[in-house]
Amino acid sequence: MTKKNILLTGASGTVGFEALKQLIEKGTYTISVFDKKTKLSEKKLEPFANQINLIYGDISNPKDLESIKNIDAVIHLAAIIPPLADEHPELAKAVNTEGTRHLIKQLEAHSPNAFFMYSSSISIYGDRVENPYIKVGDALTPSEGDAYGETKIAAEKLLQESHLDWTIFRLAAIMGNHKMSKLMFHQPLNTALEIATPRDTARAFVNGIEKQQELSKRIFNLGGGESCRISYEHFLERSFAVFGLGAVDFPEHAFADKNFHCGFYADGDDLENIVQFRRDSLQDHFEMEAKKVSSLKKTAASLFKKPIKWFLLKKSEPYQAFKTKDAKQMHHYFNLKPKS
């Protein structure tokens, strides 16, 4: 029996690397990996060089994709994500949207029967604080200034208009290997948060290869389900406890009130019923995170938690907007009450 040829993009990323390991573990596929050459990608991918066809290139350059031929299924994960996507929207568009366009064109020409599995995002639904239960048919209204969400909507449209067979998974909050950044303050504390672990997310794509008929020309919301739901405030509290940082005791206006995304996937079981990818819960996530933190690091963080949190607060754009009374930014981040 001829092995299926699988193309995986973005294999050095958090979900991509899990997908690569799972594809190799299957032992039933010929695997091509397309990724940008960096120190990180070389470190992660070179150990597998004798088990995969490793192609380095820039997805925003069509010429770099010319060697991709005779592919049976694609797991397309390569993307510029926030905060970089928000800081450099043109780069995000070049990679996330135009890169997807180039890949589609290459496959249409040289792998017209390929099954294209696309990784989209919950960000395309925009702010759902007031209406947290999300379904695939809901309006696509990314939050103001969300360049990443806009690029994902555009890429989805390109795929749906292509001559390829396809499926789209709109990923919930994928938690793993996250660094604390300014984005932590963009999300309102009362956000309904459904996560999925990178390994569960990867499993959905890998298992989906053999479920083309059931997935064909359909869009799904991918989340961890009820066991992976929590409020953002409680998620931060548990995360801070893992890292030894104590209470989430930032001043008022450190966190935004609006203009982010996330929610609970009301129809998330639809994908689970087909590809059966869920194995992890919130508890599993926090246990995995705890294993990454040595007792020495946790003790150090506990001793220096005040200066650490002061340093983090300086990254808070909502707080800076409030302190400087920047009217435009305050309107972006906060539900301002009109003056009486």
From TrEMBL:
Pfam families the record matches: Epimerase
Q: Which InterPro entries match?
A: Epimerase_deHydtase, NAD(P)-bd_dom_sf
Q: Keywords of this protein's UniProt record, alphabetized? A: NAD, Oxidoreductase
Family matches, as Gene3D superfamilies: NAD(P)-binding Rossmann-like Domain
- Alphabetized SUPFAM superfamilies for the sequence: NAD(P)-binding Rossmann-fold domains
Family membership noted in the UniProt record: Belongs to the NAD(P)-dependent epimerase/dehydratase family.
This chain's protein is named: NAD(P)-dependent oxidoreductase
- Organism source for this protein? Gelidibacter gilvus
